[in-house]
Write a structure and sequence with these properties.
Length: about 425
């Protein structure tokens, strides 16, 4: 019995002798595993990041149309045109029982690509739970608070440009005398939320109405007033209203109350669940493809290793001739196969995690919200299943070497 039945010296010598085959095998397995890891972890990161970005929106009102479009435009500030909600509905929502605040969400302007959102102070601070980290909240017309990522200092002044985004080819393409005549002063900065609202600038909704030639929501005698209470005869339309209910029961009651031919009331979380179902179907399909890829890669690797082992049958015959048992040779071959696939799987986890982080960073810059990448039980099961399958299938080349007679191996060499 060789080396006290320690197969690892022979395994190490074989791996050093066949470096090219070793690296090709390991990299093939690593790429296969990395694909599966990246798909699964990225889908999870997208779900978690998008759900966290919608946490500030309990109930959303909009004009009749696509609920998905309403959520994407209002919650994630995606540049899409949506119809305006009648102004009297803002008054109804603000005075309805069970409403902590009903905040108009008005957009249409930007400063250097940062969306300018007209709203009320309660929404800017999320009902007082999100006080500014610098300065204070706006208290009068012409004041603004900026998100954590906006490059404007406290006390800075700026004028809005018309449109949701700055033109890439012409800085003056959105020039408008009414916008040039408006000046905002930054009075506060909000804490980081890790979502698209970190890049937004919040101003009184009255300023957004004014710059677009709309009614200001208040009688002429109260033209300097901002926020509720509103004057029903002076209310302009708004793209959306974010409602903060006083309780869960109030939330469901309010959704039913405002689900009318004139308006839609949606829980953004429910809309996201529908999107997640679609993402889940895509994720399942991609996962199946990843598993199939792994099966094909393992099969190809085993075939290559089998050819390599058969080409080294003289080596194994010599081992048998100098005293190695059949079990010893079987163990050497089996360990080599499993070790190569296990190392490839471990590298695949690292590659997949790294690729998913890079992709999350890029997607966060496009979508506007952070996408935390974490490896979970699903990825662990994927890797474990691969290694267990490899351990089972590896018995094939080991068995073929195990059963070959010594004389046949020596003659063939």
């Amino acid at each position: 019995m060789m080396q006290g039945f320690n197969p690892f010296p022979i395994v190490g010598a074989d791996l050093r002798r066949n470096r090219l085959l070793v690296w090709v095998t390991v990299l093939l397995v690593a790429i296969s595993v990395a694909t599966g890891i990246a798909v699964i972890s990225q889908e999870r990161a997208l779900r978690q990041g998008s759900a966290r970005a919608a946490d500030d929106f309990d109930l959303l009102l909009g004009a009749p149309g696509s609920s998905t479009q309403l959520v994407l435009t209002s919650v994630y500030l995606r540049p899409q045109a949506i119809p305006l909600l009648a102004g009297d509905l803002l008054l109804q929502a603000s005075t309805a029982p069970g409403v902590r605040y009903a905040a108009p969400i008005g957009f249409g302007d930007n400063w250097q690509g940062h969306a300018i959102i007209g709203t009320i102070a309660d929404f800017a601070t999320r009902g007082g739970s999100l006080p500014p980290t610098q300065g204070r909240i706006f208290q009068q017309r012409g004041e603004a608070v900026v998100g954590a990522s906006v490059g404007l200092a406290i006390g800075a002044t700026f004028s809005p440009a018309h449109g949701r985004h700055r033109a890439q080819d012409d800085e003056d393409s959105h020039a408008d005398p009414r916008h040039d005549a408006v000046h905002y002063t930054v009075v506060g900065r909000l804490p980081a939320r890790q979502n698209i609202w970190d890049t937004a600038i919040l101003v009184p909704i009255e300023d957004v109405w004014h710059v677009h030639g709309m009614a200001l929501g208040h009688a002429a005698s109260a033209s300097s007033h901002i926020g509720p209470p509103w004057d029903a005869s002076q209310l302009a339309g708004v793209p959306a209203i974010a409602i903060k209910p006083a309780s869960v029961a109030d939330a469901y009651r309010l959704r039913g109350q405002f689900q009318t031919p004139r308006s839609v009331a949606v829980f953004p979380a429910e809309v996201l669940n529908d999107l997640y179902l679609t993402l889940g179907n895509v994720r399942d399909l991609m996962s199946v493809l990843a598993v199939m890829t792994q099966v094909l890669v393992v099969a190809a690797v085993l075939m290559a290793l089998l050819v390599g082992f058969l080409a080294r049958r003289r080596q194994f015959a010599v081992l048998r001739a100098i005293g190695a048992s059949r079990l010893y040779v079987f163990t050497v071959v089996w360990i080599e196969v499993v070790l190569l696939i296990a190392v490839g799987a471990a590298l695949g986890v690292l590659f997949g995690w790294g690729a998913s982080n890079l992709l999350s960073h890029w997607m966060a810059s496009q979508l506007g919200f952070a996408m935390p990448v974490r490896l979970g039980a699903t990825e662990g099961l994927l890797v474990a299943a691969l290694i267990v399958t490899a351990a089972i299938v590896a018995t094939l080349p080991a068995w073929l070497v195990f059963r070959r007679p010594i004389a046949e191996g020596l003659i063939s060499g």
